[in-house]
Amino acid sequence: MSRLICVSGLILFALTLVLPTASAAQDTTEARAPDVVYVGSPHDVVAKMLEVAQVKKDDLLYDPGCGDGRICVMAAKKYGCRAVGFDLNPVRIRESLENIKRNGVEKLVRVERKDIFTVDFSEATVVSIYLLPWMNKKLVPQLQKMKPGTRIVAHDYSIEGYPPDKTITMTSKQDAVEHYIYLWTVPLKPAPDAAASADDPDSDDEP
Fold first, then answer.
1. Could you give the maximum distance between any two Cα atoms of the chain, in Å?
2. What's the CATH class of domain 43-187?
3. Model's pTM, two decimal places?
4. How confident is the model at residue 43 (pLDDT cuts 50, 70, 90)?
């Protein structure tokens, strides 16, 4: 009997080496690692971002790089709108799901494990971003495909070459730090010098 148990144990051990767990199998499909370490926006800054973007119940908010889902959750709880968060990090996805459940907004909010540079933003009416400048700039082609009138609200980092329609400065009560909130309305309008450079490919040449 003990020999049978021992043999069974060896078989089970061998199977664990051959067959990956569900989470491990999911990880193998990940195209690449996250681009940045997640730092969440203070909650009072999130509230101001949603206010500046004039979020309403009939909006669909997208949050690329959603982290723990705090922007999506607050948008759903405060305004009753739908929201979708995107993140590559499975830990952040798990935190988002817990946050969604804890706040009872499962019917309004979902999160997807996706590379944000592959997401189709065309269905969104509001996009919130708290990303590094190079990431904001890389998103421009996707943002430009959104419907006219779609609002883009960013925390601390603007979009290079595209002056915001509005800039708000506030000091968070949570961290006593000054924060910047930027707002654009699609279509994004390039800065005059950037537009001139795009129209004239020889504009950087020496006379």
1. 92
2. alpha beta
3. 0.78
4. very high
